[in-house]
# Entry
Amino acid sequence: MANPRRLLRLRNITEIARHTWSRIWPEPMPSGWKVYLVRKTVIQSVHGRQVCGVTLARSKTILVGRNTGHYSFETLVHELAHLRTLEEQIDHGPRWQHEFNSVARTTLGSELARHI
Ligand SMILES: [Zn+2]
# Structure
């Protein structure tokens, strides 16, 4: 039988995520989280066509879509800002906006516009 990991073409990028987080925020990234790069169709079939990444709090998993037309690294940082503001009720609310647009974008600048 085919290996489901191969079918989904998951790539574990947790180390890249942790390293990226540590460059942006002083506190360590919450423990137990796994971050995967997957084909965008895997995410979009479940979460909708416009979605490039998703943060799943219950399974402590972040999925970052590949080949989304957006840059993968920016999507990763976008989702890390969600992880940073999990308790915020509004999607892309003021706390998320601050962490992503002020803190992360200021720290990483044009580096956001690259692929993983
Ligand atoms: Zn988002």
Q: What stands out?
A: Strands lie at 11-12, 34-39, 53-56, 61-66. The helical segments are 4-8, 14-24, 40-47, 72-84, 94-108. The mean pLDDT is 90.
